[in-house]
Structure formats: structure tokens, C-alpha cells
Structure of Probable malate:quinone oxidoreductase:
Amino acid sequence: MSTDLAPATDPDVVLVGGGVMSATLASLLGVVAPDWSVTVFESGPAVAGESSGPWNNAGTGHAALCELNYTPAGPDGSVDVTKAVTINEQFAVSRQFWSHLVRSGLTGSPKDFITPVPHVSFVTGEAGRSYMRTRHAAMSAQPVFEGLEHTDDPAVLAEWVPLVMAGRPVDQVVAATRSAAGTDVDFGSLTRLLFGAAEDRGVHVHVNQRVTDVGRRDDGRWSVTVRDTVSGEERTVRTRFLFVGAGGGALPLLQKAAIPEIRGFGGFPVSGMFLRTNSPELVSAHQAKVYGQAAVGAPPMSVPHLDLRLIDGDHSLLFGPYAGFSPKFLKAGSVFDLPLSVKANNLGSMLGVARTELALTRYLIGELLQSRRARHETLTAFVPLAEQADWDMITAGQRVQVIKRDPATGRGVLQFGTELVVGGEGTIAGLLGASPGASTAVSAMLTVLERCFPDRIAAWRPTLQEAIPSYGRRLNDDPALLAEVRAETMQTLELNG
């Protein structure tokens, strides 16, 4: 990676942000348009320093195998698995593309960024057990969730998740599902591998280069002003296509671009914190990722989970999340990020959310006021025998939740997810929001290609289908293709054991 801007003059494509989204788009462009010149600007000293960093995200490899907020229960007790199926298929798209890159010579072993880890959903109480039973029946009927196990037997659960069951009251009602198809993903390692391969193809990746302004030229191109964060030097490059994949930094740059499509959008930053342990005894007793249910009235971001992580060859456990608050849109951002993002065109949306999301406000205040002892008590509700001395608190990445105007009501709504904003007749695109984020990066960037280059997709389709066999098809509707894709990706990504 370089800080020399000389090769960056007037590239065909500029990607802002050195995270997994830009890395993925650079990789896809390398497949469908290898002759295009691509330049990446990252404001930090290295790529993958913000939300793509392994300690800045849960690294679940979101496949909707265990995240209960993707399978909501209706008023009649039925469970809707539509979103879970979609996310599972999107993660399968990511795995197919990673497999293609590995077959094409992506440097390093797949184990550098993805490893098999069972995914478990865990609930307590009669209502939880009834929900879990219904959820398992609904999910098991879908081909993408074939093999999902279910139990409400404490003895079986003691084998699945011994750390979660040890010390739990013997008369407590428990239930769970488990999938052996789960994974842990180090998106920092993956991002570095993708950018490394991109540089080998001629992509210019520049670090310590902050994009400070963007503007549309009369000829339809975009002027991108870049400042060297070390020397202070500024210069401007021009590009036919601009992608803003700067995480929390995307909203301010899209606002500077002044595209009509960003009007009404705002952002609400939330800082995630986790308890972490490297205790060999605890890690060996918990070889899984376990997701529970959010407390009544709590937002989806508060779903408690205990995750096995493999980062730089070392195993750890993370428990959380605990919410914090900072007005920064990035960990390395400014305290003025939030106030400066408030504009005349999004003030109504932001004030509307302030009025309607009182539960979120109460949740955040409660989290901020929690003592260390109270945080430990939250952990012991999940891991009854946890000792406070074994765990330390770490701060994860900033997540900027999307605020947008509901076209039906005109009111501001808070969206827990991602939002692709496309403007300038497809010459600029930006990604806002958070979870499931990185796990569905390939699907998100395919959508960028489809919406920004609709006249080229037909010509690109055979190449994309060669790299991603399920592209344009639903795996859940084609069990034969699903089986073929699973077998190939498991073998290529070395997930068979």
C-alpha cells in the first residue's frame, strides 16, 4: 500500500474506504472489468482499520443460523424466516466468490480468514421454548437450513454449550438449535488478502489519504479532493465512477456530493463494547457461537451473544454487545461528525426518530450508566459461573444506524440494516448502515454493479455466473444447486473439519 498519489491521476473508478466493501468491489471489478483503472483511498494508516478489523466486529459470518432477530415471531406465534433465508443465501454468495478467488490463486490459506464454528441459538423459559420449537420447524422446512438440530434437553445442551449450562438452575427451561455449518470470519484478514490481490492486478491502494470533498463536474465525472493526513498535501483526481464505502464516513461524503438521493438520510452512531477472555480453560469449554434473545423492548443491536473468535492464530471469547455512545462516525473520527451531519433536509427525519425511538434512548442511557458489576451480571445471566477477573472490556467499531424518511408517512425511521444509495445516473454509490454488513458484502457489491452499470450486466453475467454459480438464482429454490455449491465451497475453503 502506498501514499504516493502519482498513479492515482484520473482513474476509471475511485473507491473511498479501505474496508471489506471496497475490497470486494475492487475484486469484482477485477473479474468483470479487468482493464479498468481503480484507485482506493483510505484515511487510516492501514486498510481494515475500522469496522472490518477483527476486534471491531463480531465476525460471525452472518448466515442467519443463530441470530434470532432475523426470525421474528408474529402475534399468532408463527415465525417468519423470510429474512433469514435471504441472509443465508447472501452469505452463500460471499462464500462462492471467496472460493472462486481461492481457486484463482488468492494468496494464503482460506483458514487465514474463515474457520468452521457451530452456530447455536439459546433461549430460556416456556415462551422461549415454544418459540424455538416453532422456529426450528419453520427453518427446517427450508433447504438452506437443512441439518439444523433442535433440543430442549439440558443434558444435550450441556454437551453443546457446557460453559453456558454450567451452574444453571436445574429446573430452568432451556431450548436451543445448532448448526454445524456455521463459521467464524476474520474480515480484517480477508480485506487485506483482497487488497493484496487487487494491487497485484494494478489497483492502487493509498493509505493516510482522506477524501475531504467530492463534486460533480460539467462533463459528468466526479472530482475527488484528497488530503494526505501526514503531510497535509491536497490534490484532486477525477473519475467516471465513485464508490463511497467508508463505513460511518460515507454519509458526510454523500452529503457533500449533493445528490438528491441522500436527502432525508441521517445517521445515529452507536459504539459497541464486548467482554473478552483469552483463558484457555474457558475457550476450550466453548467451541461455538451462541446467540440469545434481546431483552423485551431492547433494540436488535442488543442481542446477547458469546462468540468463539480465531484472530491471528489465537482463540478468544467475546460476550456482548454492551452499547456505548460517541458522536463520532468512525473510531478515528471527530466528535463533530454527528452534529455536522444534521442538515436542513434531514432534520425532520432525525427529530422524528428522536421522538419515536424512546426505547432505544432508554436502552442507551441504561447501558452508559451500567457499572462494571452490572455488566458482569449480564454476562453471568448467559455464563452463570463467569468470574469477573477472567474478562476485560474492549471497544468495538462505531456503527452508524441509518435514519431515513418513510415515503409513506413522511416521518423519520431508524433502520437496523444496510442501505445502498445510488445517484448521478449511476456514477456514484455509497453504502450506509451496519449488520449484517460484511457477511453479505459480495451481494451488496453485486447490487452496486447492477444498479450502476445496467447496460453492462448482460455482458458480465456469464463471467459472474462462472465465479458465483448461484448468481441470479435462489439456492433455496434449487436443492441440487445448493448441494453442489455447498460441497464445492466447503472443500475449497477447507471447512470440512
Remarks:
- The chain has a mean pLDDT of 91.
- The chain is about 35% helix and 25% strand.
- The first strand starts at residue 13 and ends at 16.
